[in-house]
Each structure stands twice: as structure tokens, then as C-alpha cells.
């Protein structure tokens, strides 16, 4: 029986959500045949079978979150295991672990005459994060001696948390043993680490609400309520937004921009070329990318662990795209120096691929500055949430025709608002305002040399 463990998918991915199984127990599969769709924090991917055989067991359900290295599926490949009882079976190189010895017994630490042969008593332990295969040998050797019971109610047992949550705590410099867990049986969840870190950054003791979270009663459903699990892209969006707002002190600056001249130019260009007008977003993105080098702190991020600001020479432009699955931020790499027409084509291509769920993980990684726009639905203004760990995001709002003074006369003008959200640890209000004013000047003058 071949046990296929979730492989390392690269790009720093520590866990995935099983979205859909493409096979069922009992199905015959071929090598390299797709067997499951999974959702990472970057994109949706297909997992293929590394072996041919018959599906013996699916080790997870749709919606389950699996860490890298967890058993995903068992395939009967007709190969008999030569492993002796009590030892781990050898695995393929993909996602394999070293075989672990049988659990140590009390005989390893002689204390008197040898006890009769037989399995040693198992020490009690808290339930694991998710039990996938109770027949498997333990993933870690038991501790040399039983864990002592707490001497008093004030002592906590070692924190229960899955590896990705422990890694997040390590990255944020948080002692996970001090984090109050709000998950099942006191398990420490990602949200707990982020809330604990946010409280520490505010310089005070952990807020009472954080400690009280496990005591809060569950919501009592009303007859008209419908519950749906927070899964897939929606779950990832929730985690990212909480992380960004918990860690980054946001502030937003808003300015009105007169784009009458720019709109007239866009119309003339389209008529001359006999094609659809280039999106205003391409012009706005181009203006922002031109201005950014004069404001390096807006193309930077803060390394929380070292306390250092990281300034990035290249501009990788994230473009927020609304899809049926939720918000995605595909990235235009090396955006500096690209023409308006190039940016327009790339924005269109990335948006279409995002909505068709055809983006590879690298296309969603590494944005250093982002632009978000809802087009005609953009409203008057909003306060965009920064795409962590960047330090800035530019919001683009709807173009409206409104009366404004031009000299001493009132004229109809085409206006839109720009709102930039900034990390106040890195970017001061004066710098954010100057950035927006320089972008505004380019747009109001339609200062795009390639079209002159």
C-alpha cells in the first residue's frame, strides 16, 4: 500500500485546503493522473498521482486543511511492503519522512527486573489537530517520560498548534506557549497568534477579550439563517485582511482628480485607432509607477522580526481583481518602464486569467505596491486594506461628471477620487500626500509622452 503525503509545493506553502477530489475510493488511477484540486494561499492547484493503482482510501474530506507532509491518499499499487511490524513503511521521495523506530519502552531505562513482554502503557495526550490515519506509527517519538500534570490551575500544558501556526508565531517573535488558544480544546489558532502579536505591539497586556474568547457562547441560530463554512479563497482573504489590519497601522489620504483632459485623450486615441479605449486604470497605474521611485518608502516593507525597513529597487505592481471566488491580486513584475499600452494589455490578461482561475502561484506573489479599482462601482472613496507586507495601496474610484469652477466659470468636469492607504510606521502623512499630488499632476495634464 502506497501512502502519498502532501508534497512540498514550494513558494513557502505550508498547508493547503482540499477543494475537491477528482477520484473516489475504489477508482483505478494512472501515474500523473490528477486526483485532487487544492487551494493554497496563492492559487488553486491540481495534485497528480505519483503511482498507478487502485484508490484504497482518501485521507481527507473536501474543506479539510492539510499541512505539507500529511497523508493525502492511500493507493494500492500491488507492492508488498517488506517493513517489519512496528516500523514505518518506506515512502517515495515526495513528501517522505525518515522511518521512525518503534516507540521506546520502559526497558530503555532499566529500573529493576525486566517486565514481561508486551506493549508499554500509552501516556495520555491531548487530541491532535486532525486525525487522518490512526493506524499509522507516531510521527514523532514519544517523550522519554510522561508529561506531569499541572500542579495548579494556573499552569498551562504545552500549547497545541499545527506547524504553520507555530511557524507564524516564530516569524512574529511570539512565544506560542503564552498565547491563549480559542480553538477546540484550547488549541492555538492562527487568529490567536495574530491577535496576541497585535496586543504586544500596542505595548499593553493581552486584552481581556482575547483571553475571554474561549468562554464566549456560540451564536444561537435564527430560523432564517444559513451557515456556510469559511473555505477556499474566502478563508485566505479573511486571514490576510486580519493579518494586515492587526499588524499594520493604516491611514488613508484622499484627493480629487480632474481627468477631463485625460478622458478626452482616451476617446481620441480610441477613435484614431478604431478600437476600444484603453482603461483609465492603465494610465493611473503608469502614473503611480513613474512617481514611486521618488518615494522609496512606499515601495518598501517592514521586517517585523529584525525591526528593519526593506527598500525594494524593483516595482512589482499588484492589481486587485474581483472574481467569483473572491479578491485576488495578480502581479505585474518589473512594472517600471513599461508603456501605458503594455500595462493595459497585462492588466487585461491577468484579470481574465484570475476570473477563469488560471493563474499560477508565482503570478500572485511578490507585489511591492498595489492598485485596486472597482471601475464604475468605485464609489466616492474607500479605505483599501494594504496587501501585506507592502506599505501602500492605491484605491481608484468612479469617474463622475460634476460642476467645478474653471477660472471664474462653472463647467462640467470629469472627476475621480484617489485614496491611498499607507503603513504609518514607514510612510508619514506628508509623504503620502506628496505622492498623490504628483500622480494627480500627471493625470490632470494627461502627461503621457508616448501619446504626444
Provide the descriptors you would attach to this structure in a database record.
alpha+beta, 18 strands, eight-stranded mixed β-sheet, 22% strand, 452 residues
Q: Could you explain how this protein is built, in words?
A:
- The strands form four sheets. Strands 9, 12, 13, 14, 15, 16, 17 and 18 form an eight-stranded mixed sheet that branches.
- The chain is globular, with a radius of gyration of 28 Å.
- The termini are far apart.
- By secondary structure, it is of the alpha+beta class.
- Helix 1 runs parallel beside helix 2, helix 2 runs parallel beside helix 4 and helix 6 crosses helix 7.
Q: Which structural class best describes the helix and strand composition?
A: alpha+beta
How much helical structure, as a percent, in the residues? 10-25%
Please, how many helices?
8
What percentage of amino acids are in beta strands? 15-25%
Mean pLDDT: 80
The end-to-end distance, rounded to whole angstroms, is: 69 Å
What pattern of helices and strands is seen along the backbone?
Answer: EEEEEEEEHHHHEHHEEEEEHEEEEH
Largest sheet: 8 strands, mixed
Q: Return residue spans where pLDDT drops below 50 for at least 5 consecutive residues.
A: 82-156, 205-215
Number of distinct beta strands: 18
Rg on CA atoms, Å: 28 Å
Shape: globular
